[in-house]
# Entry
Amino acid sequence: MKTKYDKYGALHVDRNGKLADHNGTVVALHGYSTHNLSWYPDYVNREFLEYMRDKWHIDCIRLAMYTDEEDGYCVGDDANRQKLKEVVDRGVRFATELGLYVIIDWHILQDSNPLMYKDMALDFFREMSSKYAAYGNVFYEICNEPNVNCTWADIKAYAEEVIPVIRSNDKYAVIFVGTPKWSQRLDEACADPVTVDDNLMYVLHFYADTHRDELRQVYRDAIAKKLPVFVTEFGTCRADGAGDHNASETEEWLKLLDENDTGYMMWNISNRDETSASFVPDCDKYTGGYELSDLREPAAWYKTVLARFM
Ligand code: IDC
# Structure
């Protein structure tokens, strides 16, 4: 079976702000984000990814490496950092063997401003980009969700330091840049885009039961200005990852994203006791074989969404 990566290979951002292959064919990617790699590393195995590729038709996996949470990359010790890099490495390796695209996500959240751990980010992305320079399926997401006490100027300053470090090793990988207010303010990126590089996309996140027309308008305005946009994370529920599964609001979003060839990754692969988790708490399968009764409502629904792209 040919995967999207087998078919299209390495992608770049074209002049219209879309992800495209070397022939100029626009490619929209769809997949899932892991939960915190420190807490849920067990899903990062070959069988699981193969199952998700073959049965759920994901073509991309996002590896969410929290930086500042219990056992986060920046707050844990060296042994913990080593462990996390091993999880990232097996994620990238298996994704590559399976013909999947993969996003290495520097998952800032509690550390609301990426400048906070900038030096560690520089070291991390120097190492990752040197290791994966030859991999056409790898994307770097340099800051998940900047939030309180963080301006676009801060993010831009951070991006303009991290991106050249990545580029010194990896000339071609597409880089995803988070935006202010938990990756919602595309308008601020539009008004003052990053200038050191143009093979970039700006990140939009939405949780459909919280973020509705107003945020869709921000997205529409950005697309009208040809801003490259990628949804590295979305939920069908409330912004806190809990509450109701809102299929109709999510469908509004996906229709709009599909019309504009914007790719999206759903949050999250885990059996945590929360609406946005893919599996119910007592499902302890880590290598596939999921029955409908193992799935939470959003995941069961998303499986049918992904089947549309087969
Ligand atoms: C949530 C997790 C939850 C965890 C919390 C803090 O679902 O289990 O306790 O983070 O680590 C985001 C973030 C993402 C959040 C998610 C839901 O990128 O890390 O995950 N969310 O709140 N942005 C908007 C929503």
